[in-house]
Structures are given as C-alpha cells and as structure tokens.
Design goal:
The complex is a heterodimer of chains A (about 150) and B (about 90). By secondary structure, chain A is an all-alpha fold. Chain A contains five helices and no strands. In chain A, α1 packs antiparallel against α2, α1 runs antiparallel to α5 and α3 runs antiparallel to α5. The radius of gyration of chain A is 19 Å and the shape is flat. With about 90 residues, chain B is mainly alpha-helical. Helices cover about 65% and strands about 10% of the residues of chain B. Chain B is built from six helices and two strands; from the N terminus they run βαααααβα. Chain B has a two-stranded antiparallel ribbon with strand order 1-2. In chain B, α2 crosses α3. Chain B starts with a strand and ends with a helix. The chains are: A mainly alpha (about 150), B mainly alpha (about 90). Chains A and B meet through α3 of A and α2 and α3 of B.
C-alpha cells in the first residue's frame, strides 16, 4: 500500500469516526439534554479519535523503501479523477444535507440561523469519504487509458 | 471501437538484470512499487518519460520493453491477408 492509499484510508476512518463523535455529541446535547458524566463520557470519543489519528500518522510515515517517492504520475491521475468524483458528490450531498433538518426535526420547528453554516460541516466529511473511496477503488481497478 | 493493448517485457528484463525487485526498479525510475506492479500487469499505461526511464534502467531501447498491439488493425491485416491470398490462389 503506497502513501496515497494510506492517506485515503486514514481519511475514511477519521471522517467516519468524526461523524460518529458528532452523532454522539448531538444525541447527548439535543436528545438526552445533558452532558455525559465523568471525563471518559465527555472526552472518551475525542481521545479515541486523536489516538486513531496518531497511529495512522505513524503508519503513513513508515516507508517501504528509503528511496520511495511520496507520489508519482499514476497517483496524480487517480487523485484528479477522485477530485472530479468529489466535485460531483458536492452537487448531490449539499442539497441532501440541506433537507436533513426538515426530515429530522419536522416542518414546524424553528432553528437558529447560526446553525445553518454547520450543515456544511456535515457535508464536508461525506465529500471527503467519497474522494477517498474513489481513490481506493481506482487503485484496485484496471485503468488502461494512461493520461487521458 | 479499437481495442488497444500495451504489452511489456518488464518482468523478463527484471529477472535478466540480476533478479531486480519491483521496489528496486521503482526506486530507480522514481515511482512507487504499486505503479510498477500496475504497469507489469497491464493495468496502467505509463507516460512516455516513464517508459523511457524504465527502458534506460534496463539499458535497452523502449520498443524492446513496450510493444503496442492494436487489435482492430491486427484483425484488418489478417482479413486483408486472407483476401490477398484468396486472390493469389
């Protein structure tokens, strides 16, 4: 597994963990209406997130060979295609995320205006997951068309 | 639609060059081992500069390492050859 694949895998795991932590926080604050008791309950998920990030960074820095390059022409081609996939996903994810408050809270509920930009923070991990998944899929499939 | 096939002899040349590993070839040509593997398996068509670097590493001309086969042209040649031989006979 080369550096680009490792970073894509790291991105997927961290973004999924971030979404899980976000869901945990939202459930605690919005549904249960109280913060969890004790440090483990409050900061446990964040500690797990940072520990996972640290372990992945150590794994990424480990090289297969001392002269191994970080990135080559095939990696760049794959990243460009993944960026196109991510761009298309923006057009789908942003409108989908925008209707989420209505689906979750109902039609007659008011939400504060400051919470609207936060919707983008939910869309961002999803788009990053699409980008990273596109990278991993392309490394596993045949791509014969060179620099097309 | 034409189906193009870029064949290569990288594996053979690696073994002829004192059993060079994919990682050693990757280090010499400035790419990752995964890219060498993809080229060897025919999953990725390298750029011309990379193809030249691979050929230079083995000390052979590029056409010795990479061969281009256009299936549709090959089929056309075979058909034309068949017709020509029919005419001759």
């Amino acid at each position: 597994m080369n550096r680009t694949q490792k970073i894509a895998l790291l991105c997927i795991v961290i973004m999924l963990l971030s979404l899980a932590v976000l869901a945990y926080m939202v459930i605690q604050i919005a549904v249960l209406k109280k913060l969890p008791e004790g440090y483990v309950g409050r900061f446990g998920p964040l500690i797990i997130l940072f520990a996972a990030m640290f372990l992945f960074l150590v794994w990424i820095c480990k090289r297969q060979s001392p002269r191994e390059v970080n990135e080559d022409e095939r990696d760049k081609l794959i990243e460009n295609r993944a960026a196109m996939a991510a761009l298309v996903s923006v057009l789908i994810v942003l409108p989908a995320v925008s209707v989420m408050p209505r689906l979750i809270l109902g039609e007659d509920v008011c939400i504060p205006a400051w919470s609207l930009p936060l919707i983008n923070f939910v869309a961002l991990p999803i788009i990053m997951i699409v980008y990273s998944t596109a990278i991993l899929i392309q490394f596993g499939r045949r791509c014969k068309d060179g620099n097309k | 639609m034409a189906t193009n096939e870029l064949k290569n002899q990288i594996r053979r040349f690696r073994f002829e060059n004192s059993e060079m590993t994919q990682q050693q070839l990757a280090d010499k040509t400035g790419v990752t081992r995964q890219t060498i593997l993809a080229i060897e398996q025919g999953k990725y068509a390298p750029s011309l500069p990379l193809a030249f670097r691979i050929a230079q590493t083995f000390g052979v001309p590029i056409e010795a390492v990479f061969q281009y086969e256009d299936e549709s042209a090959k089929n056309t040649r075979q058909t034309d050859g068949g017709q020509a031989s029919d005419k001759n006979s």
